[in-house]
Amino acid sequence: MERPNGRKIVLRFNRAKQAIGDEAGLLSGVLGLLGTDYGKFPTCERSWRKITTKDKVYNECIKQIFHFDEDIEGTIKKNILKSMGKSWKERMLRLYDTFYEPTLMTEENIEQRPPRIDREHWRWFLNYRAEEETKEKCKKNAANRSKQLYTHIGGSKSFARRMEEDALLFYSLTLKLFL
Questions:
Q1: Can you tell me the distance from the alpha carbon of 145 to that of 42, in angstroms, rounded to the nearest whole number?
Q2: Which DSSP letter does residue 48 get?
Q3: Is the dihedral of CA 156, 159, 164, 167 positive or negative?
Q4: Are strands 9-10 and 12-13 parallel, antiparallel or unpaired?
Q5: Which domain holds residue 66?
Q6: Closest CA relative to residue 35, chosen from 92, 73, 74
Q7: Alpha carbon distance 15, 145 (integer Å)
Q8: Which residues, at least 6 apart from 70, have a Cβ–Cβ distance to it below 8 Å?
Q9: Which of 37, 104, 121, 177 gives a 20 to 30 Å CA spacing to 31?
Q10: For the stretch 29-60, what's the b/e string if a residue is b when 16 or more beta carbons lie within 10 angstroms of its beta carbon?
Q11: Can you say whether residue 28 is alpha, beta or left, with left for phi > 0 and alpha for psi between -120 and 50 degrees?
Q12: Which of 89-93, 138-142, 162-166 has the lowest mean pLDDT?
């Protein structure tokens, strides 16, 4: 990933250590792209917690593109890794739904694997999805999703960004009243 003009993008954070401003939107897009990168995060892991390349990607990609002061508690890094993990997990679900064909034999499904995914990684992933424990977890998650009454309609901006924009608008309107 290339930095614009070779410069780092400066990130700002609110008191809750959430990225704010337009730069937060750029961060979100970069995290989404990184989370779906097969080369950085393999498909042959059961969970995001077991991925060992997270810190390397954080240091070599995020810290090279964005400038920000880390907090002592590590909340900023934790939130960034959590966002990448969500993208990775969603990618895994889309991969299976898009490329797995239940009417084909295992070897045929392996031949029809997504581009850029290692053959043995795809084999591992298909075997993992075929396990009874995984099937039960998928059924349970689907049942829980079906109970959801409302869908998110707030758009792609985080609540932190919306709150910052609302506070700035309120401040500017208040300032106009007193001028």
A1: 26
A2: G
A3: positive
A4: unpaired
A5: 4-178
A6: 92
A7: 32
A8: 76, 77
A9: 121
A10: ebbbebbbbeebbbbebeebeebeebeebbee
A11: alpha
A12: 162-166
Q: pLDDT by residue (tens digit) across 66-102? A: 999 999 899 999 999 999 999 999 888 888 889 999 8
Backbone angles phi, psi at 60, to 5 degrees: -85, -20
Tell me, what amino acid is at 23?
E
What is residue 138's DSSP assignment? H
Q: How many CB atoms lie within 10 A of CB 86?
A: 14
Nearest Cα to Cα of residue 48 among 1, 81, 20, 15: 81
**What is the number of domains present in the chain?**
1
> Which two tokens mark 89?
């997990």
Task: Specify the amino acid at residue 76.
Answer: I
